[in-house]
Amino acid sequence: MRALVVLLLLVGCLPPDRPQPPASPLAIIEASTDLDGRVVGRSNARATIVVLMASWCGHCRAQLDQLAQLRDRHPFARVLGVNYKGHEEYDNRGNPRQLRAYVGEHVPWLRVVPAGEQLFGALGRPPFVPAVWVYSARGELVEFYDRRERAPPTAEELEALLARLGA
Fold this sequence. Notes:
alpha/beta; Glutaredoxin
């Protein structure tokens, strides 16, 4: 009984729970499930490229073509797609069925995560696709290519960055 009283007194003296820092977008992606319902999980990749994309977007398709070529030359890099419903279904241009069909036909190697509000918010709610993030092996953001500020990254830019990261 005495131990219970001491425990209750100690619990009352503990500092209040501190708010946890927000999870990084990559951590959220890794904890998410892909289009097939499988958890993405962590990787031992030396670099992770995350592309926010929509199946109907010409810029996204060109970016994914570049990434397909890069992944062949950089086996220690992984590429993950993120699809936000608001972008996919923008102006009635796409829907989940079209997304699945596009991925299955054109980029079957790409694991795509449907982004909920938490992930889309963590990514900064970019209004334009594609947007591209590159993370180091430790999960640190190395580069962000935002179409609000510039054109999508070229193959040469990504090639140099992956080489620098040893991917």
